[in-house]
Structures are given as structure tokens and as C-alpha cells.
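Worked problem 6 (solution included).
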Amino acid sequence: MGDRRAVWGSNTDGTAVVADDVYLEPFVDALKYRYNKFQELKRSIDEHEGGLMKFSQGFKKFGTIKTSRGITHREWAPGAKEVFITG
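Solution. The predicted structure is:
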């Protein structure tokens, strides 16, 4: 395990977890790919949405919300041709 920690433990490309689980080693390329996709998405959220904290609060703005003036419904539907609300 010590050798594995030396080889994998300090990696910052999504593969450091291999130090703790030998069975993940065949999936190193997939781990790197997924980690890179995560980093791209996180950068996009930081740039366009003001960060993960602000982005995670979307439920306060979208959906059906009761306000002092009534009920508001907001939905994010890019490319939608039609939207129906039933109820």
C-alpha cells in the first residue's frame, strides 16, 4: 500500500483514489476523463452562475413558488417549442 500511495496518492488528475483501491487501476483513463469533465463543468458554473453556492440555490428561483403576490412558476427549458402547465 505504501508504494501505491507514493505512486498515486499525490495525483491531482482524478486518479489519487487508485492509491486506496487497486481495482480502479484499469480505469485510470476513465477517471481522468470524468475528472476533466467535472473540472470543465465547475469552471462553467463558476463563470456563468456565480459559483457552486449560488448555483445550488436555483430551487429558490425555479419551480412553483408561493409569493406574497400569488404563485410564480419558472422553468428552464432551452430550445423548448412548447410548455404546458396543468393543474
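Discussion: The beta strands are 63-67, 70-74.
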